């Protein structure tokens, strides 16, 4: 268990460093972006991208950071880490030939699976909260003052969204012995879903509607979470975890 916790912390640190670098670069670019908003509005294609810039015009620095950090950084890096961490969680043991050794531990299969699930989920969520906590400090470098609380709430929304993606991939890992195809297939699925989101006629068919820019802007405006969006995601994650437990209980090494 100690080794797995160390792996979790290393993964969380690596993801945090990438997210922090992207966040810092985006915030430091804010003054230039703000100065060129009229020109950017003329260049951005389609209603969705134009709507993003319009939201920034209305919301200022906080809306800009929400777009860059959650919708851009966390969706991209967080989505990739959720898939990579979950795809090898169970299938990786079988692929490496260590499944029998892992199952030989003096604990139940249920506990083994729940511990592996929880550590992976933590490695996905920790970087989001850790980097979000630095936003007020980073904004100080561009002379912008923002509150921390809305960004922590946004981190909760983003983490619940990514947990659903992680849980689905984890279920596939419990069913399979080949983590590579799982990761590749889920990455393609995620890319396709993002492409759907950017097409007006197909955007409502995209999973990214559950973590839309408007959801994060609503958090900024109201200071609360939208549970009508988050509850179905939590239920979906719970269903995937339950299915994973059932599958793993019957799995032959």
Low-confidence stretches: none
| Shape by Cα distribution | elongated
- Oligomer status: single chain
With helices defined by DSSP (H or I, 4 residues minimum), what is the helix count?
13
Q: If you compute it from the alpha carbons, what radius of gyration comes out, rounded to the nearest whole angstrom?
A: 19 Å
Average pLDDT reading? 88
What is the chain-wise order of helices and strands? HHHHHHHHHHHHH
Secondary structure tally: strands: 0
Structural overview:
This protein has 253 residues and is mostly helical. It has 13 helices and no strands. The model has no long low-confidence stretch (mean pLDDT 88).
Provide a concise account of the structure shown.
With 253 residues, the protein is mainly alpha-helical. Helix content is 79%, strand content 0%. The relative contact order is 0.14.
């Amino acid at each position: 268990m100690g080794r797995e916790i160390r792996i979790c912390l290393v993964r969380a640190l690596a993801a945090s460093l990438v997210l922090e670098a992207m966040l810092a670069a985006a915030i430091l670019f804010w003054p230039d972006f703000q100065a060129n908003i009229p020109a950017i509005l003329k260049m951005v294609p389609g209603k969705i991208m134009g709507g993003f810039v319009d939201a920034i015009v209305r919301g200022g620095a906080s809306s800009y950071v929400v777009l860059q950090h959650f919708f851009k950084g966390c969706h991209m890096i967080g989505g990739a880490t959720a898939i990579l961490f979950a795809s090898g969680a169970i299938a990786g043991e079988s692929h490496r030939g260590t499944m029998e050794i892992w199952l030989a531990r003096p604990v139940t299969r249920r506990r083994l699976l729940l511990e592996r699930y929880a550590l992976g989920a933590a490695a996905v969520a920790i970087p989001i909260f850790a980097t979000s906590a630095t936003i007020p400090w980073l904004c100080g470098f561009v002379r912008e003052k923002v509150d921390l609380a809305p960004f922590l709430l946004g981190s909760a929304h983003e983490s619940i969204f990514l947990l659903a993606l992680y849980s689905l991939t984890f279920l596939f890992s419990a069913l399979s012995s080949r983590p590579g195809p799982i990761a590749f297939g889920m990455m393609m699925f995620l890319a396709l879903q993002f492409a759907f989101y950017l097409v007006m006629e197909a955007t409502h068919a995209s999973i990214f509607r559950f973590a839309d820019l408007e959801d994060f802007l609503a958090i900024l405006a109201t200071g609360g979470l939208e549970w009508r969006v988050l509850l179905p995601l939590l239920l979906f994650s719970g269903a995937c975890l339950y299915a994973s437990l059932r599958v793993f209980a019957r799995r032959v090494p």
